[in-house]
Structures are given as C-alpha cells and as structure tokens.
Prior knowledge:
This protein is an alpha/beta fold. It has two domains: 9-101 and 162-232, Rossmann fold (3-Layer(aba) Sandwich); 104-156, no CATH class. It is 52% helix and 13% strand. Strands 2-1-3-4-5-6 form a six-stranded parallel β-sheet, with helices on both faces. The radius of gyration is 16 Å and the shape is globular. The model has no long low-confidence stretch (mean pLDDT 96).
Amino acid sequence: MSVTEPPTAVLLPGTGSDEVFVRSVFAGPLAAVGVELRTPRPRPGKELVRAHLATLEATDGPVLVGGISLGAHLAARWAASNPDRCAGLLLALPAWTGVSPDAPAALAARYSAADVRARGTGAALATAVTGVAPWLAAELTRAWTGYGAGLADSLEVAAAEPGPAVAELAGLAVPAGVAGCTDDPVHPIETARAWVAALPNGRLGTTSLAAVGADPEALGRATVLAWLRARFER
C-alpha cells in the first residue's frame, strides 16, 4: 500500500455498544484523511465475537482494522493472525491485555450481565446509568436496548474474550494508533500505554471522557492522529 493511498477502515464496537457510536467517533476524523469507514453492526448473543471476526475475514484486501474496547481487542488479535491482510490499526480504549478476568471492564460486563438476567434490561439499565454523564447514559440506553434478548449473552461473551497478548502485539509491525482517556477507570490509560510499548510501530493519543462527552470525535481524532504519526514518522 502506498502512503498516498489510505485503505478502507473496518472498525468494531465495544462491549454493549454499537456501530452508531463507532461512526460518531471515527466518521469525521477518517473522512478528513480520505479513509472510507465501515462499521458492522453487532450480532447480539453468544455468537457476538465470532460474528465480528467473520466480518473481518470477509473483508477484501489489506484493510485498516480496529475499534473501541472489545472491538480493538478483536481487531488486534485478528491482525496478529492475518498480518498480510492488515494495513494498520486504529485501537481506541483498550481494556486489558491477554486473559484478564479481573480487569475493570470485564468485571463490569459480568456484573451487568448478571443484573440483566436477574432483573431484566430495563431495571439493569436504570442502575447502569445512575450517576453517569448524560451522554454516556444516552449511549448505553440506545445500545443496550438494541441488543434485545441477546444483551446478557453478549456481555458475558465479551467479558470472557482474551485481549491480545503482549507477544501478539509485538508481532504487529503495521502502523498502529492507540488512544485512551486519561480519566477512564474502566479502560485504564496504563493499558493503552502498555499496548503502545509492545507494538513495534505504535503511537499513543490521549483525550478525556469529558472531551468525548462534548465531542465524540475527540476520541477518533486522538486515534487517527496517533496512526498518522506511526505511518509517517520514522
């Protein structure tokens, strides 16, 4: 791939999130650099992860892959298994590395799944949005409702899915932009820094949840700018 020919980007959503949020984060920043964006919808239920990986498998040509949280995990692991098909990585809000059942995001997903099973989506959602920023409450309400009866299974599958191992990240030589929020306890900025340290050609971008709440593209810009630095800096 020539540096003058940006690839198509296929970006996956995070746990309990959806393609709407991915587009709100990345559509503008990627359009600004001439990259076409594809945002597959999640398939709720036990096949959630398999469906996301099947989407990447069905993509033609070298592509820029990534996503948010779980989406970033899956894209990095897919890229490690398909290095010739990956043109670069856009990895926002990584939540853990390898097998990490006690990571904050994994614990939160398992708790939410149990609450959905015990009390139903409506009651669990009411608890989940209590005390959170209005923009995040709106995102959770839309996305969780869209998962329907598959929500609990989706959360459990996501919580159990390993992140990329350090060795997998170390084998990814493509340009990689990794972004984290410095004030996000569920997706610790330390994880983003660890991923960048492991990636041979990774760069870090940072923002904050407050900034994302005001403008979702803040997260996309941080990720895309980090990728551009990895792509062009030597």
